[in-house]
Amino acid sequence: MNNNGTGRAALADSAAADLDPARLRDVFGTFATGVVAVTAFDDGRPTGLAANSFTSVSLDPPLVSFCAALTSSTWPRIRGARRLAVNVLAANQREVCERFAAKGGDKAAGLDWFSSPGGAPLVAGSLTWLECSVEHEYPAGDHLVVIARVRQAGGPFAGSPLLFFRSQYGRWAPAPG
Ligand SMILES: Cc1cc2nc3c(=O)[nH]c(=O)nc-3n(C[C@H](O)[C@H](O)[C@H](O)COP(=O)(O)O)c2cc1C
After folding, report:
1. Atom in ligand 1 nearest the alpha carbon of residue 169
2. Structural domains of the chain, ranges and CATH numbers in brackets
3. pLDDT class for 1, splitting at 50, 70, 90?
4. Of 33, 65, 72, which is best to mutate to test ligand 1, by the most ligand atoms within 8 angstroms of its C-beta?
5. Average confidence (pLDDT) over 32-49
6. Nearest protein Cα to ligand 1, atom 31
7. Residue 8 burial by CB count (10 A; 0-12/13-18/19+): exposed, middle or buried?
């Protein structure tokens, strides 16, 4: 499918607008992603943040990345832990995502979790979990790009992913054709 004709005119119009943060958020939001919960123990209690900036980086050595906002109050707590976990959220874990996206409060209250072998909190029902240590943190604008080394992994388990697209949650379906 191409996007010529009216699509080209729309493209020219939209390119004239400035890159203000609200528009950029909408533009970035056209890239559909999964969602992870990045978790760690903070004083023995699970905490974490929801992130859709997660991506796999390297198989050898095993590295992943995600971006942490400079405004995050939870990231400094996670960074201080020896191990963190990346929990890939399933389609039925929207509530889990929302609790980790909330600011403040006890994010683990009522959460079904268990500990990874190396000591990071794992969210029950996730599609996979990765137990990681922080390898690098690179400042990048209003975020930090975190490179984490995968120490252990669990899964993949059955289920379909929680997806995020244009600020809305959805679920995966095979493309037609
Ligand atoms: C779908 C979704 C994706 C998000 N992705 C990120 C992300 O990649 N990086 C980030 O720092 N915050 C992300 N957030 C925001 C954090 O999950 C969360 O709101 C914030 O960390 C909570 O504030 P706190 O860190 O001060 O506790 C995302 C939120 C949602 C709902």
Report:
1. 1
2. 36-162 (2.30.110.10)
3. very low
4. 72
5. 97
6. 101
7. exposed
